[in-house]
Write a structure and sequence with these properties.
alpha/beta; TIM Barrel
Length: 305
Amino acid sequence: MNAIDRLINKIKETNNPTVIGLDPRYELLPKCLLEKYPNTLEGVSQAIVEYNKALIDETYDVIPAVKPQIAFYEMFGIPGMKAFEETCKYAKQKGMIVIADIKRGDIGSTAQGYSNAYLGKTKIGEKEESIFDVDFVTVNPYMGTDCVKPFIEDCKKYGKGIFILVKTSNPSSGELQDVKLENGEEVYVKVAKLVEEWGKDLRGENGYSSIAAVVGATYPKQLKEIREIAPHTYFLIPGYGAQGGKAEDIALGFDKNGLGGIVNASRSLMCAYKSELWKDKFAEKDYAKATRAEALRMKEELGGI
């Protein structure tokens, strides 16, 4: 079974097309948790692991996937990367799909090295070892086909998947992605067509490919357009919640069967215990229970898609 079918099966199992982004910035971690550990790189990384595991424990039966953003682990050096590794392994043990948000994009042997680390295997002597062994990674395609090809080949070889940046949710994405080409189409349209083509050999039982796309909820017009351009391309849809994306906008990226996308929420889930909706109902020490409550509320809100 290819990667996108595994993801779709988890979405169907939980009846919930969402992914929790695990972006553990220091200032967002509960004080009661930070106070348990030394104020060092190792201590903060230990707090991150405990935090992530608690959120996973409260949501693995409700949310099908996790998306740790590598930057918030790299910033704590080697201890942070160990926290990333432990988080990914724990989520997989709980049966969740792991999408590593690494946004790599380089050429030739460099791209292959990135792919070896996260999707494929690294040769050590006469043997090959899986390193982080996640299910999906995010990829920046703006150096062209040769920066994407090594990832695609490893997707074929190891049953993995990638989400390629097409139309991102950030405010200035249009500075490059909306630029019109000589034929009149925007850059994001060109990239969407490339993603659809790159993925044709990895379409699964549900008609979607493991070569997928990142398309932001903050641009509903483009979301609808890209769905029409790339009917076999699954979408990772950021921008829900804290960034302003609404359920009615997100629905434009889905097909008539309620498939086609998985919606990312990071701060709104991770920091639910601080939100206006939940802060008076959950104490800080119950941060994970607040995340579960918000996950269930989000699931209900997206239920009409």
